[in-house]
Specification:
Distance between the termini: 73 Å
Order of helices and strands: HHEHEHEEEHHEHHEHEHEEH
Radius of gyration: 20 Å
Shape: globular
Number of helices: 11
CATH superfamily: Vaccinia Virus protein VP39
Number of strands: 10
Number of domains: 1
Strand order of the largest sheet: 3-2-1-7-8-10-9
Structural class: alpha/beta
CATH architecture: 3-Layer(aba) Sandwich
CATH class: Alpha Beta
């Protein structure tokens, strides 16, 4: 027996499996993130994405995933209205020449709005938390205060921002805590160049007035997108499925790339 040699051989075998089968061990609770990175590593080059809009950037977790595990080197436009989170984003990414920040919230109109800042800042929303949900998730959804924030539409943002004006193939990540449909209503002009999007859909209604997840998904499909991928769910609230990420690709882009046949005219 040669323990050191056996360990080296085992390490080489694991490396071979990882390279050949794109296989690697991950912790169960990290499975969704690993699957999402795997998906985006393939999707973004396939669609020739040249701009990612990270709406609801929080502390930059998604942008870090793109730059790290996904290997995306194109432009990223982070959208984050909470001042403290915006400062953290600048500190983290300001040296990245292909990254920019819009310190604002997205909606269906331009103006000002009151943002409810929750104890769990990633759950902060322009919408008030659902009373029933607050009872269940009080540790995260208790309101700590309100912040007056600038509100703009995705159309206005993509028309005006220098990093976005030249982009032809946009990937939209929406983690906007119940405001997904409002953002899409403010993006009518931009949809022809948004080739793919992902949304965090709520199964448990965390905010007042949020449509059920199946209504949100139907609205996205009605705008010309097809469901493409559902990564593993985070089971921290088991047996509840509180929310989940869903990924969509524009049908027109799938037709262009030969993955779908054009629909016949009625």
């Amino acid at each position: 027996m040669h323990p050191a040699r056996d360990r080296r051989l085992a390490a080489r075998a694991r490396g071979w499996l990882a390279r050949t089968l794109d296989w690697r061990p991950v912790r169960w609770m990290q499975l969704g993130s690993a699957q999402q990175a795997w998906y985006l590593r393939r999707l973004l080059p396939l669609l020739q994405i040249d701009l990612v809009v990270d709406a609801g950037a929080n502390l930059g977790q998604f942008s870090a995933l793109l730059r790290g595990k996904v290997g995306y080197r194109g432009a990223i436009l982070s959208v984050e209205p909470i001042p403290a989170a915006a400062r953290a984003l600048r500190a983290r990414f300001s040296a990245d020449g292909r990254w920019a920040l819009c310190e604002c919230a997205l909606g269906e109109r331009d103006g000002r709005a009151a943002l409810h800042v929750m104890r769990g800042h990633e759950l902060s929303s322009l919408l008030a938390p659902s009373v029933a949900a607050t009872d269940r998730f009080e540790a995260f959804q208790a309101i700590e205060g309100k912040v007056d924030v600038r509100l703009t539409t995705l159309d206005a943002l993509l028309d005006a921002h220098p990093l976005a004006r030249a982009a032809r193939h946009v990937y939209l990540k929406l983690d906007v805590q119940g405001m997904e449909l409002a953002v899409l209503r403010g993006a009518a002009r931009s949809l022809p160049r948004i080739d793919a999007l992902q949304v965090e859909a709520c199964v448990v209604p965390l905010y007042e007035g949020v449509p059920p997840y199946h209504v949100l998904m139907a609205e996205i499909e009605a705008r010309g997108y097809q469901l493409s991928f559902l990564p593993a769910h985070n089971y921290t609230q088991m047996p509840d499925m509180v929310d989940f990420d869903s990924h969509f690709v524009a049908r027109r882009r799938l037709v262009e790339l030969g993955y779908l046949n054009p629909r016949p005219a009625p």
